[in-house]
Amino acid sequence: MKLGKFMTDSEETEFRRITHTFFEKEWRESFDIFYQVTVNGEKKFIKFAEFDPRDYSRLDAILKEKQTEIFYIKETDLYKYYQFNILKHLLLGLVQDKPPAREVFQRVYPVATRILQDYLEIPASDDFLVLLDELPKVLAKSLDSGSLPFHELFALTLKENTIHAHCVNVGLYCLCLARELGMNRKDREEICRGGMLADIGKKYIPKDVMFKESELTDEDMQTIRLHTAFGKKKLNEQRRYSKTVLRMAGEHHENFDGTGYPLKLSGNDINTAARICKIMDIFNALTSHRSYGEVLTPIQALTLMKEKIGEQFDSQLLTAFIQYAGRQ
Ligand SMILES: [Fe+2]
After folding, report:
1. How far apart are alpha carbons 43 and 130 in whole angstroms?
2. How many Å lie between the centroid of ligand 1 and the Cα of residue 90?
3. How far is CA 158 from the centre of its chain?
4. What residue ranges define each of the domains in the chain, with the CATH number in brackets?
5. How far is the CA of 3 from the centre of ligand 1 (A)?
6. How many A from CA of 232 to the centre of ligand 1?
């Protein structure tokens, strides 16, 4: 999503819209704030404030008076914006408030989706994945004292047809099923991280294929299927991720009966976390708005998936998910 350009002497800069959240806290990091104007039908970005205590007071006063003002920063400042403002604000708030799991999920969700959206849309953003590191940790920890009921989990996930929402939804579903299966906090964290990152290889699929509105050809399908290998490779290059995370990216489209891709692995040869990811990937797709097919309710989706038990899905894991989803 390109929002517009601001021309300075010789550089051309991309801008991203930001939220006001960070203005509530100390504004320590240096980045300039812009607002958008339209001159002769052309969008331009004008510098509104820069890192300066006097500008901060000015911003504060304006926001108190005019809550609807929309601000932008340069794409190149986004990492700092997340690291020193959004994430700091989120993580400090969680430590101070110690909210229940549902609220932890609610606070983390918009931050995780926005970071992933920017990662997927901005070409030079590979370091953005580091920004997600703490989020699976706090989510996994929030389930120490009990599981999150499925209807609460389902209610907080967006059903829009975007890759970033899909990634975060899959991560949260994986995490909650892992809690049901009695996995420890560290394993829950890893499966949540792996679920959120399993589809990041889609960033490297040509956009005209990835977002094609008309029917996909066999060649298009082959191209899209490469996202598993691309994702695993990109994550591996970061040298920070566990085997579980890498295998979830590489194996989440394998089928239990060996008819999936890319390696046609079957049964227990497919990593357990990847088998869980497969279930959540299909479940989220069926219950979200898509360019094809209707949006199914959880019951409709699980009924349909049950028909594929033992073929696409591990029967024990799908049964456990159905039991979790059906419990009041
Ligand atoms: Fe995928």
Report:
1. 32
2. 29
3. 11
4. 1-75 (no CATH), 135-326 (1.10.3210.10)
5. 28
6. 11
Ligand 1 centre to CA of 173 (Å) is: 15
Residue 214 tokens read as 């008309």
Tens digits of pLDDT across the chain (328 residues): 334 444 443 345 788 887 655 555 555 566 788 888 888 888 888 887 776 666 667 776 776 676 666 788 888 888 888 887 789 889 999 999 999 999 999 999 999 999 999 999 988 788 899 999 999 999 999 999 999 999 999 999 999 989 999 999 999 999 999 999 999 999 999 999 999 999 999 999 999 999 888 889 999 999 999 999 999 999 999 999 999 999 999 999 999 999 999 999 999 999 999 999 999 999 999 999 876 678 999 999 999 999 999 899 999 999 999 999 998 6
- By DSSP bridging, strand 71-74 and strand 12-18 are antiparallel
Residues whose CB falls within 8 Å of the CB of residue 53, separated by 6 or more in sequence, listed in order:
none
Kindly tell me the burial class for residue 147, based on how many C-beta atoms sit within 10 Å of its own C-beta (0-12, 13-18, 19 or more): middle
Say how far apart CA 83 and CA 165 lie, in whole Å. Answer: 21
Which helix (H) or strand (E) segment holds residue 42: the answer is strand 42-49
Nearest to 240, CA basis, from 81, 106, 134, 115:
134
